[in-house]
Design a protein that fits this description.
Elements (H helix, E strand, L loop, with lengths): L1 H5 L5 H5 L4 H25 L9 H14 L3 E4 L10 E7 L2 E10 L9 H13 L4 E6 L5 H8 L5 E4 L1 H19 L3
Parallel strand pairs: 3-4, 4-5
Antiparallel strand pairs: 1-2, 2-3
Helix pairs in contact: 3-7, 5-6
C-alpha cells in the first residue's frame, strides 16, 4: 500500500518542461490509470485507510473518483484555494451545475467543527455555486451536521464511509463493463 501511494504523485514540473512530454504522456497514462484503479479498489474495501494519505493525495483521489462518476472535476491549487479544493461541473438541461468541494484529510480523532462547514456555505454563495460537498476522513460534530441539514440539500457532508461507497460503485461499474453488460 505504501509503495502504491508513493507512486501516486509525480513531479509535474519535470514532465511539463520536457520537450518529449506528449510522447512520455502516452506511455505513462495507462500506468497512472492502473495506479488509480488499484487505489480505488483498495479504498472501496478499506476506507479506514484514507486518513493515511497525504492531504494532497486525498484531494487527487477525490478528483479521480468524481471524474469516474462523470463529473468535470477541476482540482484547486492545494493552498490558497479560498476553501475550494475541487470544483465539480455537471451538465444539466438548464446549463451547468457547479458543486464546490472542501476536502479535509484528518485523523479520526479530530472531528470537523461547525466553522469550516459554515465557511464552505459562505464560499458557495460568494462564487454562485449550486451545491457544496464537504468530504473528510474524520467525522462531524453534531453542530456541523445540524447546520448542514438546515441548508435544504445545498450542503452535503461525506466521510470515509461515503468515499468507500463511491469507490465500490466504480469497482462494480468496471466489473459490469468487463462482462460486456
Amino acid at each position: 500500500m505504501a509503495d502504491l501511494i508513493e507512486h501516486f504523485e509525480v513531479e509535474s514540473e519535470e514532465l511539463y518542461s520536457d520537450a518529449t512530454f506528449d510522447d512520455k504522456c502516452q506511455i505513462i497514462i495507462p500506468e497512472f490509470q492502473a495506479i488509480y484503479e488499484e487505489l480505488i479498489q483498495h479504498f472501496a474495501y478499506h476506507p479506514e485507510d484514507l486518513h493515511n494519505l497525504e492531504w494532497r493525495k486525498f484531494e487527487r483521489l477525490l478528483d479521480a473518483i468524481f471524474k469516474n462518476q462523470g463529473f468535470v472535476s477541476e482540482i484547486g491549487p492545494g493552498s490558497g484555494d479560498s476553501g475550494v479544493d475541487l470544483r465539480l461541473i455537471q451538465k444539466a438541461n438548464v446549463g451547468e451545475l457547479v458543486t464546490l468541494v472542501q476536502a479535509k484529510r484528518y485523523a479520526p480523532k479530530y472531528p470537523i467543527q461547525l466553522e469550516p462547514v459554515a465557511a464552505l456555505l459562505g464560499v458557495m454563495y460568494d462564487q454562485n455555486a449550486d451545491r457544496g460537498l464537504f468530504v473528510t476522513t474524520s467525522c462531524y460534530l453534531p453542530s456541523a451536521k445540524k447546520f448542514a441539514e438546515r441548508q435544504k440539500k445545498l450542503l452535503t457532508l461525506a466521510a470515509s464511509e461515503d468515499v468507500g461507497k463511491w469507490c465500490r460503485e466504480i469497482v462494480v461499474a468496471r466489473a459490469h463493463r468487463g462482462k460486456g453488460c
